[in-house]
UniProtKB/TrEMBL annotation:
Metallo-beta-lactamase domain span: 23-193
Pfam families: Lactamase_B (PF00753), WHD_BLACT (PF17778)
Organism superkingdom: Bacteria
UniProt name for this protein: MBL fold metallo-hydrolase
InterPro entries listed in its UniProt record: LACTB2_WH, Metallo-B-lactamas, RibonucZ/Hydroxyglut_hydro, Sec-metab_biosynth-thioest, WH-like_DNA-bd_sf
Organism of derivation: Sphingomonas brevis
PANTHER family in UniProt: ENDORIBONUCLEASE LACTB2
Length: 280
């Protein structure tokens, strides 16, 4: 267990991958009474490490930001070990396009209480953890605010951009959620993967700009000629690790669906996409 600041500590699950960086980070929030955020994958050694870190203290809640399988499955074993309720995101069992082994949805997740935006968990003598609804990466994604820090799950990570893959991932929702975070003014982000984000406003502005740049790039490519998604990925992501190509294709598809809803592109024959000419 690694203490990060008063009332916040972190444990790292041993599930490294191109999508999880060094692994999923589980956070313990509180002093005498705890909330465990993102208990992680179903790994006995990680659950044992959490129980050891809890060290007999009461666990007020086990809270999951979303239900990809690198985040929520350990909630069940941890609940058995501690008796704590599972309080957080809603259940969701949709599959993404080209699901990856470490992040398809946890179909066995059953929360005792689902938090809506702005609802809180009270614990440890008056401390509060507040749900911040941030759909986009998944429709059920929550961040959790604690004082002036925000636990961002997979919505914002300092080491990588977030994967947004339909049918559940939604680019328009993701951009709205990013704008919400841009307006919040949190001091610090604690993501589920990678280091703490010490300049969150600057990072969020950069990520919004990155997505807008990617959108312009896609519009330019489909404006040149009809293109399918693999063709767009090949031109938009030169030299990409082949293990990440399906995820890139999913994000491109999410952009295309958003652009289609805004009347800027249309789907054509052979799974190609074309830019719609705009009036002067």
């Amino acid at each position: 267990m690694e203490p990060l600041e008063p009332g916040v500590a972190r444990l790292l699950a041993h599930n490294p991958s191109p999508f999880t960086y060094f692994g999923t980070q589980t956070y313990l929030v509180g002093d005498d009474e705890l909330v465990v955020i993102d208990p992680g994958p179903e790994l006995d050694e990680h659950v044992a490490a959490i129980v050891e870190a809890v060290d007999g203290r009461n666990v007020a809640a086990i809270s999951c930001t979303h239900t990809h399988r690198d985040h929520s499955p350990a909630s069940r074993a941890l609940q058995q070990a501690t008796g704590a309720p599972i309080i957080g995101c809603a259940p969701l069992v949709l599959e993404s396009i080209g699901p990856r082994a470490d992040a398809s949805f946890d179909k066995q997740y059953v929360p005792d209480r689902v938090l809506a935006d702005g609802e809180t968990i009270e614990f440890d003598g008056g401390k509060k953890l507040t749900a911040v609804a941030t759909p986009g990466h998944t429709s059920n994604h929550l961040c959790f605010a604690f004082n002036d820090a925000l636990f961002t799950g997979d919505h914002v990570m300092g080491w990588s951009t977030t994967v947004v893959v339909p049918p559940d991932g939604d680019m328009a929702a993701y951009m709205r959620s990013m704008d919400l975070l841009r307006q919040r003014g949190d001091r610090l982000y604690y993501p589920a993967h990678g280091p703490a984000v010490t300049k969150p406003a600057q990072l969020v502005r950069g990520m919004i700009g990155h997505r807008m740049q990617r959108e312009r790039q896609i519009l330019k490519l489909v404006g040149q000629r009809p293109r399918d998604i693999p063709d767009i990925v090949a031109h938009a992501y030169p030299g990409l690790d082949q293990r990440l190509v399906p995820a890139a294709g999913g994000s491109v598809y999410a952009h295309l669906l958003d652009l289609q809803q805004r009347g800027l592109v249309e789907a054509g024959e052979g799974e190609t996409w074309t830019r719609i000419a705009q009036p002067d």
